[in-house]
Amino acid sequence: MTKKKYYSYKTFEPVELSDTYVSPHHELFTGLNSKSDEELEELGFVLTEIPEIVYKIRNWEGKYPPEEFWTKSYCWYRDDPPRYEVSNFDMEHIKRRIDYNIFWSDFCKTTAYDKIRELSMTSLPVNTIATELIYLFYDAKTNNSRPLNVDRIQSCFDFIFANVEFTAEELQKIQEIFVGTGMHYQYTITNGN
Description:
Layout: E1 6-9, E2 21-22, E3 28-29, H1 37-43, E4 45-48, H2 52-58, H3 67-71, E5 72-77, E6 83-88, H4 91-96, H5 100-107, H6 111-120, H7 124-141, H8 150-163, H9 168-180
Antiparallel strand pairs: 1-4, 2-3, 5-6
Helix pairs in contact: 6-7, 7-8
């Protein structure tokens, strides 16, 4: 894949240029794709090298963002010289970024979820814990103002992974969803069988 080029217009944050650009001051530029870097620079567009982390976060491909999405922050400064500053999120901030909505949506599409659902029809303990987990995730997804019951969610996961037999493929898929949604920063999964 060819690395995309980013241009900063008069020290504004770099963007990948399309053929038309409207500046923050509402200036309209057209025909940009046919111009050389030198011609663009004469118009005020400076080819800007962006840090690899910023590039990776802005251009991620696939279902889930790269690991840096959860752990890194970047900010553009218009100082002389203009630059990006990359910093690390603290762990509390990372945990607030967990995407409970995507986790639950993707988890419900797995064969592991189907297995839990099927077992809950014949096992009262599994049914009780599955129902509680559904309620806890409803609470997490709706961002209710009260604090999340993180310990109780972990306890439900622990019970499920100790009492439901998952295949290696199912565990791998759950782990992929955990990492892809940032859940692994707050919760752990184990195969208790």
